[in-house]
Amino acid sequence: MKIFIIEDDQTIRNEPMDFLTKYGYECNSSDDFENIVEASLESKPNLILLDLTLPYQDGFQICRQIRKVSSVPIIVVTSRNTPMDELLILNIGADDFITKPYDLQILLAHIQAVLKRTNESAQNVFLTYKELTLDVLKSRVISGIEEVELNRNELGLLRLLTLNKGNIISREELMNELWQNGDFVDENTLNVNIARLRRKLESIGLEGYLLTKRGQGYQL
Amino acid sequence: MSALQFVQEKQVSFLLKALSLCIISFMLLLFDLPVNVIVLINTISIFFFLCTMLFEFYRIKHYYDNLMDIFEQLDEKTLIADIVQEPTFHSGQVLYSILKNATKVMNDRISSLKNSQQEYYDYIEMWVHEVKTPITALRLILENHRTSEKMHIQTEISKIDGYVEQALYYARSSTLNQDYRIETFSLHSVVNEAVKSLSLTLIRASAQINTDQLDLKVTSDSKWIIFILKQLIDNSVKYRSLSLELSFTAKKIEGGTVLGITDNGIGINEGDLGRIFKRGFTGTNGRNHAKSTGMGLYLCNNLCEKLGLSIKAISQKERGTEIKIFFPDKLTTFD
After folding, report:
1. Could you list the residue range(s) of the whole structural domain that residue B238 is in?
2. Which of B179, B199, B217 is the last residue before a domain boundary?
3. Looking at the domain assignment, is residue B323 inside a domain?
4. How far A203 CA sits from the closest chain B CA (Å)?
5. Which of B130, B140, B212, B244 should be substituted to probe chain A, the one whose Cβ sees the most A Cβ atoms within 10 Å?
6. Could you tell me if B241 and B267 lie in one domain?
7. Can you give the pTM of this predicted structure?
8. In chain B, how many domains are there?
9. What is the pLDDT of residue A159?
């Protein structure tokens, strides 16, 4: 699955690229903004991330030019959030937009949603750590031939832990992950969720995987 | 202008006329003219005098009545001189030219102020968009590179983001040209959005969030509502006592829907309660507890007014505060 990122700010271009690469997307970009339309189409992307304020020409013009020749899904990433801008963005044929500042998880969710909608062969997203494989889209964890379904909270927790491969994740950060899912849990509920997740992992033979680090947090 | 006022104004003319008639009659009497001739002369003279007066009265009355009518109907009062015609009598002409020049100076000044306000607003808007780029960059770096201080830095970044947003909404609330996007949405969606974006601050405060009946739908501009809710949540966190309990409850009442945001914080002094929505008001809490700019609630009130909502606060010292926002079923005012 290829993603082309059109963005002139180095950091805002590179950080999502690093992140999306972790999720198995192939990311490309270019510094040549004069010929950015050609460059983006040449790499035959499955999706384009487009900033609006760019050198040479703005995102609106680029979007129009791409639309003339291709129907590739486009997500506009912008810091302008007036109703007028939203209207313009959707009218020139973009599929979705995200306003800055955004979280990478949000960006990923939008990308997955757009790809699903535009029917670009709903590809699986797998995250792995040691013997553990997490199937993010189907919400299940696989170890060898055994697998177990996860609920939304457990998936969120395990995704964050797997992404950070062996680093300690603080309780606050885990709670924040659940809050971002729309479940405003307290400390006790987090404990319950962690315990349940640990039992599920043990049930498919992944014992000693979810470690408690006293006073610091949890580690996969 | 009534006839009596006119006569009062012209009393000197009337007196002098009467005096002159008396003197003439007396002199004619001395010349031994018959009385009825004198009466005739007087009658003719009085008749023409009254005609002159009547003509003048109607001319002035017509002009000023017309002027008053236009003035009362006019929204932009300072444009009066461009609409009324120049009077035909000299005393009116003098005042008219003064009025014309004075309103011209005033109108020029108003339009230059409006221009500079618009330019300033445009600049603020542009600046906010500019500054969001580095904020985004910081967040992205932080998400990809683990440091032990990640959560701390993230909390500080969301504070910066909050202040930047406040500046934008302040600018939006104080300019005349507005773009709203009015839609119907569930209260659940806006409360969720607001809580999510302040999640780190709330988790740090060990907050417990309760919601009730938030599937009720209201019609307004959701972005503005989210901003207002964020200001209110921020206050609840700032002025909490021990562990924060925050409840969002919606209720359908006659003519609309009420959203209540209740906390168990330190509450507001009764003496301060009436003034918390005033600009720059900090009150006892603002001085003794978290530092306050007196901007948050002022902005909330201001934005609510523009959206045609009403907001009020109920509080008990040491027990907590409840802020109620009323969404009417029929939106009316957009000034």
Report:
1. 183-328
2. B179
3. yes
4. 30
5. B140
6. yes
7. 0.76
8. 3
9. 87
